[in-house]
TrEMBL record:
This protein's UniProt keywords: DNA-binding, Plasmid, Transcription, Transcription regulation
Organism: Shinella oryzae
A Pfam entry, by short name: GntR
All residue ranges annotated as the HTH gntR-type domain in the record: 16-83
SUPFAM superfamilies listed in its UniProt record: GntR ligand-binding domain-like, Winged helix' DNA-binding domain
Highest taxon of the lineage: Bacteria
Protein's UniProt name: GntR family transcriptional regulator
Length: 233
């Protein structure tokens, strides 16, 4: 019998335990498509890869199953959740509802500091998008981070931690489908972000909601066209 690792609940920094850090890494690997849909998660290999005990790993995988990123198969273990056209559509609908609601709240409550955070987030996003449009595909990971930071900045003044947490989870699960499609949407997504930025600074909530609804639908169309994982599903 293997000796379990000690110290897994010690802090890696001021706010995160080792177990939390592994949870974040494993979740990232699923969302980014490093762990593919339907692949088995072999506990012994995962224990070695993420340097954590089997018991803690089981707890982490159970947490991920609550987000529908992992399937628990009883005595057969765990596997990365499959993808489907139905789930993609459901996630898109939910993201649209949550993000549009958050926009309404945020635009009504946002202050000058909120506007400044949007300007900064869009500046970073636009810089990465220019590199991607120039063919620097190595910037895709930076784009993923900056894309969420921009969308989050726009809804940050909603003052609802529960709403933002729910939106973050749905956003990531929707992002997983984009990463499996494996290609940047190009100038169309850049234009959407610029328009959304302008609507935010103008406090045009209705206009921003229209952009988000269209933005998400175009994302679905792109994924359906380019993702081999959705063929026949």
């Amino acid at each position: 019998m293997r000796e379990e690792r000690s110290g897994e609940h010690e802090r890696t920094n001021d706010s995160e335990t080792v177990s939390d850090a592994v949870f974040r890494r494993l979740r990232h690997d699923i969302i980014m498509g490093i762990l593919l849909p339907g692949s088995k998660i072999k506990l012994e290999k995962a224990r070695e890869r993420y340097s954590i005990s089997i018991s803690s790993l089981r707890e982490i995988l159970s947490r991920l199953s609550a987000e529908n990123l992992v399937l628990a198969e009883g005595q057969r273990g765990f596997e990365v959740s499959p993808v489907s056209r139905q789930e993609l559509t459901e996630l898109a609908d939910l993201r649209t509802v949550l993000e549009c609601h958050a926009i309404g709240l945020s635009f009504a409550a946002g202050d000058l500091e909120w506007e400044g955070s949007i300007v900064a987030a869009h500046h970073r996003l636009a810089a990465v998008e220019r590199r991607l449009l120039a063919g620097d595909v190595a910037r895709t990971i930076d784009w993923v981070r900056c894309d969420w930071e921009f969308h989050r900045a726009i809804v940050a003044a909603s003052n609802s931690a529960t709403l933002l947490q729910s939106l973050s989870s749905v956003f990531d699960r929707f992002l997983r489908y984009h990463m499996l499609a494996g290609s940047f949407r190009g100038k169309a997504v850049v234009d959407d972000h610029k328009l959304l930025f302008e609507r935010a600074l103008a406090r045009d909530a209705d206009g921003a909601k229209e952009i988000i609804t269209s933005h998400v639908q175009k994302g679905i169309d792109h994924i359906m066209k380019d993702s081999k994982f959705l063929s026949g599903r």
